[in-house]
């Protein structure tokens, strides 16, 4: 059905294989990954059933309409408007897309006053120093926590208290909120080993839920079904589930299963596998990190801030608290401010009551805008870290992990069990489009078995090694783009990821990734204050890498951000990596809330 909406074969990418109608597939999870897989398979003639533990579809896309208008509790943006399959879905759903303007951002100091010119200049100097430290750390022979790299590089212990606060602010807004993880957990080598679609970031003012709603049309979706076990039994897969409402148990049998459980749930062991997952796959689950990013949405009677400002950033006196805010006054036409908290503080506030969280948020807004601001007429808070069906917001590359772990996690088992979800996408992890593309990839893998004449699932799995810096996985993905992150410092090093692949006529391309790393030190940047923040992305059609025991890899995501009337970010250390001996540690936003 959706194939017809989007142009038939252009969406499915393969002719329907003979016998597809006789294939039964169960998809675990009705998030965007599961819906993408199910929609693709159903449109190709497979019999598909989705089991979803929640009482709603969408997963970490969650549009709450209880206030009479849409409020995003999870994913909030489509990142990159050019070539992004979510834009196609949004257009098919008739959803409005509005650019979210990062250039309009304003920064405020701890007192609530706008940053002074001297502070802006000091931020630029510190940012450049931080980038130089990150560049040096990414060219080092061993990996370590990103915060350790930065603090050592900027001489944190010798800085004034004011400069330390500015560094903590930059670490929080540049890294911790971006990757939903503590800088003490992020890998210096691999934290930013992602790429992006070019173009602008967009919001859906009428609700992100329009996308899962579109994909779900006509599908067999069974809500409140909590899967507890996945077992391979001969030429079938047996799924055990219990009702999330009444506790009644059920067993379903299928030819194949697509597991789209969030990484946090896989880590918890709430779902068991028989036989147990291969040790290498378990190591990948344990090695990758699952981050926390929470929202506090405040609905006011009127707009008391500059409605042309989409971003508000606060140099908090307490590390990591209430640093990033967005306004929906212009994009959605509503008097709404949303405060974000990530990493340790994002997790810590989950233990507080809604009222206490709202009051903490209002205290910051009163500091910035004065005590006379009106009380909110409504509010919503999230607790993604303790949500039993996600146990986190999205995945990140933790110290000691490697990007190859995502490929390992994505590998099918015995032609029966397939995996999808943002954590399984090597380059688009932590994004809605990465989750969606991982689902269509899993569907393509199942269809490839049929096309190859192996409907009974005789396919085998050869795992790649996770403990060393060698990888030779195969993954499907859409043509990638390089993402550059530019911080406000001139002469800042740029970091490039050379990506090549052979595009096909379908929305996705097959990518063989086995990478070799080479490291070459790059020069440190010098600082010059710039008044804005921009994000750019350059396009490379796809990525190719040749298997090699030492992995040669040109890493160039160039991602540019210009942040506020007072700052531009160039976070683009150029780095080429030479693989260290195999004894060295190997190294991992839906909601993009």
Keywords:
593 residues, alpha+beta, FAD/NAD(P)-binding domain, five-stranded parallel β-sheet
Mean pLDDT, all residues: 81
| CATH-level-4 superfamily name of the domain at 2-62 and 206-287 and 397-451 | FAD/NAD(P)-binding domain
Mass-distribution shape: globular
User: What is the C-alpha radius of gyration, as a whole number of Å?
Assistant: 23 Å
Question: Numbering strands along the chain, what is their spatial order in the largest sheet?
Answer: 7-17-18-19-16-20
SS-based class: alpha+beta
Task: Catalogue the unreliable spans.
Answer: 7-16, 455-593
CATH class of the domain at 2-62 and 206-287 and 397-451: Alpha Beta
State which percent range the strand residues make up.
15-25%
Helix/strand layout:
Elements: H1 2-6, H2 9-12, E1 24-28, H3 32-43, E2 47-51, E3 63-64, E4 71-72, E5 78-79, H4 85-93, E6 98-99, E7 106-108, H5 117-138, H6 146-154, H7 161-179, E8 201-203, H8 210-216, E9 220-222, E10 225-233, E11 236-243, E12 249-254, E13 256-259, H9 263-268, E14 272-274, H10 279-287, E15 289-290, E16 293-299, E17 311-314, E18 324-327, E19 336-342, H11 343-348, H12 354-369, E20 378-381, E21 395-396, H13 404-410, E22 417-419, H14 432-451, E23 474-477, E24 481-487, E25 509-512, E26 518-520, E27 536-539, E28 553-555, E29 560-562, E30 568-571, E31 575-578
Parallel strand pairs: 1-2, 1-13, 2-9, 7-17, 10-14, 13-22
Antiparallel strand pairs: 3-4, 5-8, 6-8, 10-11, 11-12, 15-21, 16-19, 16-20, 17-18, 18-19, 23-25, 24-27, 24-30, 26-31, 28-31, 29-30
Helix pairs in contact: 3-8, 3-14, 4-8, 5-6, 5-7, 10-13
């Amino acid at each position: 059905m959706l194939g017809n909406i989007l142009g038939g074969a252009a969406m499915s990418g393969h002719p329907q294989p003979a016998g597809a109608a006789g294939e039964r597939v169960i998809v675990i999870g009705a998030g965007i990954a599961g819906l993408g897989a199910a929609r693709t398979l159903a449109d190709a003639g497979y019999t598909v059933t989705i089991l979803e533990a929640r009482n709603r579809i969408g997963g970490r896309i969650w549009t709450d309409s209880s206030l009479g208008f849409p409020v995003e509790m999870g994913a909030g943006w489509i990142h990159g408007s050019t070539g992004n399959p979510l834009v196609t879905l949004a257009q098919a759903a008739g959803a409005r897309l509005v650019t979210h303007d990062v250039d309009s951002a304003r920064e405020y100091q701890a007192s609530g006053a706008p940053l002074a010119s001297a502070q802006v200049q000091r931020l630029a100097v510190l940012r450049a120093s931080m980038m130089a430290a990150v560049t040096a750390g990414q060219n080092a022979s061993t990996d370590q926590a990103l915060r350790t790299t930065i603090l050592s590089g900027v001489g944190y212990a010798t800085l004034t208290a004011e400069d330390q606060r500015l560094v903590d602010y930059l670490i929080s807004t540049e890294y911790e909120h971006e990757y939903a993880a503590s800088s003490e957990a992020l890998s210096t080598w691999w934290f930013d080993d992602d790429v992006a679609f070019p173009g602008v970031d967009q919001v859906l003012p009428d609700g992100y839920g329009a996308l899962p709603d579109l994909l779900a049309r006509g599908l067999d979706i069974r809500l409140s079904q909590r899967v507890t076990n996945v077992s391979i039994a001969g030429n079938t897969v047996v799924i055990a589930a219990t009702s999330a409402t009444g506790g009644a148990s059920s067993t379903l049998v299928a030819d194949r299963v697509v597991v789209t459980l969030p990484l946090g749930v896989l880590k918890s062991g709430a779902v068991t596998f028989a036989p147990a997952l291969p040790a290498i796959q378990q190591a990948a689950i344990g090695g990758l990190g699952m981050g926390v990013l929470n929202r506090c949405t405040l609905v006011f009677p009127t707009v008391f801030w500059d409605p042309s400002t989409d971003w508000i950033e606060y140099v908090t006196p307490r590390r990591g608290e209430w640093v990033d805010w967005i306004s929906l006054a212009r994009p959605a036409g509503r008097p709404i401010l949303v405060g974000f908290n990530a990493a340790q503080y994002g997790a810590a506030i989950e233990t507080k009551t809604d009222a206490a969280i709202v009051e903490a948020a209002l205290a910051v807004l009163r500091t910035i805008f004065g005590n006379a601001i009106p009380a909110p007429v409504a509010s919503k808070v999230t607790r993604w870290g303790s949500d039993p069906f996600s146990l986190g917001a999205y995945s990140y590359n933790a110290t000691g992990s490697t990007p190859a772990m995502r490929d390992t996690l994505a590998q099918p088992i015995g032609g029966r069990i397939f995996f999808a979800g943002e954590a399984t996408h090597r380059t688009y992890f932590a994004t809605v489009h990465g989750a969606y593309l991982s689902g269509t990839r899993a569907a393509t893998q199942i269809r490839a078995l049929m096309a190859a004449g192996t409907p009974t699932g005789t396919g085998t799995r050869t795992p790649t090694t996770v403990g060393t810096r060698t990888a030779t996985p195969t993954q499907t993905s859409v043509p990638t783009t390089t993402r550059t992150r530019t911080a406000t410092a001139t002469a800042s090093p740029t970091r490039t990821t050379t990506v090549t692949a052979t595009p096909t006529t379908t929305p996705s391309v097959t990518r063989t990734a086995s990478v070799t790393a080479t490291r070459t030190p790059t020069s440190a940047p010098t600082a010059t204050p710039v008044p804005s923040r921009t994000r750019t992305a350059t396009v490379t059609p796809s990525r190719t890498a040749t298997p090699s025991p030492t992995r040669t890899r040109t890493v160039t995501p160039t991602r540019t951000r210009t942040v506020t009337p007072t700052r531009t970010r160039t976070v683009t250390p150029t780095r080429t990596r030479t693989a260290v001996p195999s004894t060295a540690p190997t190294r991992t936003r839906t909601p993009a809330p």
